[in-house]
From TrEMBL:
Gene Ontology MF terms in the entry: O-methyltransferase activity
SUPFAM superfamilies, alphabetized: S-adenosyl-L-methionine-dependent methyltransferases (SSF53335)
Pfam families: Methyltransf_3
Organism listed in the record: Modestobacter muralis
The keyword Transferase belongs to this UniProt entry's keyword annotation: yes
Name of protein: Methyltransferase
Gene3D superfamilies: Vaccinia Virus protein VP39
BP GO terms, sorted: methylation
Keyword Ion transport assigned: no
């Protein structure tokens, strides 16, 4: 095949593209402060990192696009993702924020308070999916986001999907982290759990699914109406 010399590519590297997407997503001072605390905790205590700004903005878009009034956030962390969700939700919407770590729940509550979120707009629930899911109303939620490690909720996928109304979405965060899901040789438990979640959602004919390669990735599954 003859190659044709052309102008040098003008596109940036994937890294600069990701940096652009993050810089496009302008965070409020409260989000930036919550991010700083969460990153500090991750560095000093080994807790999980918050979502990247571009992922937060994508969550806000999904919440706004679905006119979300009732949202579940599994894995509150330091509240960064929660603040983005609240940004996209209806102003009378309620975010139900779950976490199994009391320190993370306190951090998320602090983030919401410092952002001036009215107390009636958040419902903080302590516990694991197995403990909390039975307390939530089936079909009552517009959007459910999962930020905890996949093994922590892969056994509860049916229950999580059951929470969502038709037209609503399940969003699983982080499946592209480290690129292991694309590496056939990777067989660690978390990667296997990711593959199972992805396969289950894609094979479910009641759902329309996509992987959004933003930050560490979003797996979005929307219930057909
Ligand atoms: C990556 S962090 C979430 C960060 C959040 N998305 C943000 O941007 O601020 C994951 C959270 O999941 C929580 N988690 C992990 N396993 C859990 C489980 N089995 N039940 C409930 N929460 C869990 C952790 O305590 C942690 O706060």
């Amino acid at each position: 095949m003859t190659s044709v010399a052309g102008p040098p590519p003008t596109g940036g590297s994937p890294t600069s593209a990701a940096a652009y997407a993050d810089s496009f997503a302008v965070e409020s001072p409260a989000m930036a402060a919550a991010r700083h605390r969460a990153v500090t905790a991750a560095t000093e205590l080994g807790t999980a990192l918050p979502v990247e700004p571009a992922v937060g903005a994508a969550l806000a878009v999904l919440a706004a696009g679905g006119d979300a009034r009732s949202v579940v956030s599994l894995g509150s962390g330091g509240g960064v993702a929660g603040l983005w969700l609240l940004e996209g939700m209806r102003r009378d919407g309620v975010l139900t924020s779950l976490d199994g770590d009391p320190a993370e729940q306190r951090a998320a509550r602090r983030a919401f308070t410092e952002a001036g979120v009215p107390s009636g707009r958040t419902r903080m629930i302590f516990g694991t999916p197995g403990e909390v899911l039975p307390r939530l109303s089936p079909g009552a939620y517009d959007l459910v986001t999962c930020a905890s490690p996949p093994l922590e909720y892969s056994g509860h996928l049916a229950g999580l999907l059951g929470l969502i109304r038709r037209g609503g979405s399940l969003v699983c965060l982080g499946l592209l982290a480290d690129g292991r899901i694309a590496d056939r040789a990777a067989r660690d438990e978390q990667t296997v759990a990711w593959r199972e979640i992805a396969r289950t959602l894609r094979e479910d004919e009641t759902l329309t699914c996509a992987v959004l390669p933003v930050g560490t990735g979003l797996l979005v599954a929307t219930k057909r109406t």
